[in-house]
Known about the structure:
Blueprint: E1 5-9, H1 14-25, E2 29-34, H2 37-41, E3 48-52, H3 58-72, E4 77-80, H4 95-123, E5 127-132, H5 145-165, E6 170-177, H6 186-190, H7 194-199, H8 210-221, E7 232-235
Helix pairs in contact: 1-8, 3-4, 4-5
Bound molecules: nicotinamide-adenine-dinucleotide (NAD).
Amino acid sequence: MSVQVVAVTGAAAGIGRATVELFAERGARVVAVDVDKAGLDELAGDGIATLAGDVSTEETNAALVDLALDRFGRLDAVVLNAGVSGAGPLESPGAIERFDRILAVNVRGAVLGVRAALPALRASGGGSVVVTSSISGLGGDPVTWAYNASKAALVNLVRGLAIDYAVENIRINAIAPGGTVTALTAGVLAHPTLGPAVTERIPQRRWAQPREQAEVVWFLTSPAASYVTGVTIPVDGGLSANNGILLPPAYPGDSPR
Length: 257
Ligand SMILES: NC(=O)c1ccc[n+]([C@@H]2O[C@H](COP(=O)([O-])OP(=O)(O)OC[C@H]3O[C@@H](n4cnc5c(N)ncnc54)[C@H](O)[C@@H]3O)[C@@H](O)[C@H]2O)c1
């Protein structure tokens, strides 16, 4: 049976919002968590309960589980998607404070989220965790060292935790989105040179829509993925399959194909 009750963090915008909408459309009850209360208010609907809170705190993660159980009576899946970036150069003033914050939201938030959800998932007879890593967790990007470190940590976090909870039928996986059209990446996409430079390295030569990420989250939480745990699935239009050699322009007449 598909997920009945799911909690999604970073739910007010972008990939999280698309995930809330997709699960709700398919009949799941959703607990939507974000620091952005105004954004959450736009999501309110019959089967959607919202919680304003910071995922780097134990309080928010405990409240997320309590809300799922109080409102919907169970919890089958958690999508730990909230994330931030932007440390700036390593030697810039304040870089270490920003690094600490990125690690707190992206890594500590995921660790706390899994920890808080485990008893409720166990009580449902098993369940599924999906963490949002990134292609920035699979390789490095310019001036992105802190975010790179945080997203790489998630790749190995899901491996380690998947091993610990597999026998309890709790599957723990990640997606690694490539460039996806959200507020987080609006600056890169709109940049006159950087935007096209990124796009031309993507074999599919376009960025993802948030819903294309949500579909893979749906798959990972579904019975179709019942034997999948401890993996990170790139959802990146082939970007991470590229060995780093710039793609030739798409000129069909002169193509090697
Ligand atoms: N957009 C991309 O290209 C891309 C690529 C790879 C990975 N990701 C990852 O996908 C996830 C979602 O990003 P997005 O692109 O949808 O960004 P977004 O900025 O549109 O949405 C992120 C949401 O997380 C919320 N959030 C931030 N800090 C929070 C906290 N401490 N507690 C609770 N909520 C918090 C924000 O308020 C926002 O609503 C992030 O983990 C991001 O790192 C995005």
